[in-house]
Automatic annotation (TrEMBL):
It is an enzyme of class 5 (isomerase). This is N-(5'-phosphoribosyl)anthranilate isomerase. It catalyses: N-(5-phospho-beta-D-ribosyl)anthranilate = 1-(2-carboxyphenylamino)-1-deoxy-D-ribulose 5-phosphate. HAMAP family: PRAI. GO terms for molecular function: phosphoribosylanthranilate isomerase activity. The gene is trpF. One of its GO terms (biological process) is L-tryptophan biosynthetic process. CDD domains: PRAI (cd00405). Residues 13-213 form the N-(5'phosphoribosyl) anthranilate isomerase (PRAI) domain. The keyword Isomerase applies. Pfam families: PRAI (PF00697).
Length: 227
């Protein structure tokens, strides 16, 4: 169980940016590993620690909570820690490795790499070697959640072969492109926000279901194919 579980024979799924009770009830009905709360005020998916506490109370214990932050203040971290069950921290800003470790303490954390043709992946991986997984995302306005894919060809095949077991792939995923994404990366997990929304910040239950179905049927197809 869990987004960072390497023993699963399937692709782990995180749905990010849930902000309403209805989103949580839908998540509870899907066999997903994690949901994300966005504690970044400019985001259309922002929830306060108090809201996250209430939403967390109705979330299934089987589903992990990822706390997504972008260069957070100490005060915000304190508030999140005191109110929310955080299973994994997600750092999506310019946090240094030391700052990630300081905030996360004993809780696992993931650092997002925002990929463009200037990005030096080797340096990033060395710098953030303590990250339990690396989130690969696109460069978008507002740090993330922009529904944009990055150019997958920028990631060398050899790097994918050696490191995909530590990758949570994100950036513009949806039920139509996720099979190709899994075939290309064979990642530890996939992370989606915009692709399961009717409009920015508004999750659509049918799209959430379709995304999970697409991931699970891709895994099944790949296991039958034996690849
Ligand atoms: O979701 C947001 O609003 C957000 C804000 C700031 C940083 C990251 C954010 N979300 C993360 O962005 C990626 C990609 O999301 P999308 O599927 O392309 O919309 C994902 O890791 C979200 O967790």
């Amino acid at each position: 169980m869990g987004l960072l579980n390497h023993q699963n024979s399937y692709t782990n799924i995180k749905i990010c940016g849930l902000s309403k009770e209805q989103d949580i009830l839908v998540a509870n009905s899907l066999a997903i590993e994690a949901i994300g709360f966005v504690f970044y005020p400019p985001s259309p998916r922002y929830v306060s620690p108090q809201q996250a506490l209430q939403l967390g109370n109705i979330l299934s214990d089987e589903i992990q909570i990822v706390a997504l932050v972008v260069d957070p203040s100490d005060e915000l971290i304190q508030e999140i820690r005191s109110q929310v069950r955080v299973d994994i921290w997600q750092f999506h800003g310019d946090e240094s490795p030391a700052r990630c470790a300081e905030i996360a303490q004993a809780t696992p954390w993931m650092k997002a790499a925002r990929i463009d043709d200037q990005f030096v992946l080797q340096d990033f991986c060395l710098q953030y070697s303590a990250s339990a997984a690396w989130i690969l995302d696109a460069v978008v306005e507002g740090f993330g959640g922009g529904g944009q894919t990055f150019n997958w060809q920028l990631i060398p095949d050899i790097w994918i072969k050696e490191n995909a077991h530590r990758v949570v792939l994100s950036g513009g995923l949806n039920s139509h492109n996720v099979a190709e994404a899994i075939a290309h990366f064979r990642p530890l997990g996939v992370d989606i926000s915009s692709g399961v929304e009717a409009s920015r910040g508004n999750k659509e239950p049918n799209l959430m279901q379709q995304f999970v179905d697409a991931v699970r049927s891709t895994d099944q197809y790949n296991s039958i194919k034996g690849s």
